[in-house]
Specification:
Elements: H1 3-38, H2 44-64, H3 68-77, H4 84-96, H5 105-119
Helix pairs in contact: 1-2, 1-5, 2-5, 4-5
């Protein structure tokens, strides 16, 4: 095994460990938000905002720990995270085929719930 091959193997192993820690952390963020809603400490909108901010912070921190190859792949898939408004629009279109602004309060809450759920899921492509 050449030195370069050994380095790539170590990078891949470190990236897998970093990825596992990242997934655990984002799942914890989503779980915390859901617990706060259940306990009446946060609304769905507040929890969605929290999840969006925290997931983006966690993603940024874990990307600093990722190898150059792993970071290149991650950034190829998602260079920058979408804004919260963009997520609201995306889920509104997917779930209701309608703009977020035209949804009822109940439908908007469903969108917020979807953002909270999605914040705990990782992209399997990375």
């Amino acid at each position: 095994m050449t030195e370069g091959e050994h380095s790539v193997g170590i990078d891949a192993s470190n990236d897998a460990h970093t990825r596992a820690r990242y997934i655990s952390q984002i799942q914890r963020i989503s779980s915390t938000a859901k617990a706060d809603i259940s306990a009446g400490r946060a609304s769905y909108l507040e929890a969605a905002k929290y999840c969006h901010v925290m997931r983006n912070q966690v993603m940024e921190e874990y990307r600093k720990l990722t190898s150059e190859q792993g970071l290149a792949k991650a950034e190829e898939i998602k260079k920058t995270p979408p804004s919260l408004a963009d997520l609201f629009e995306r889920y509104a279109q997917q779930l209701f085929d309608c703009s977020y602004q035209n949804l009822s309060a109940e439908q908007q809450q469903r969108i917020h719930h979807e953002v909270i759920e999605a914040s705990g899921r990782s992209n399997a492509e990375v």
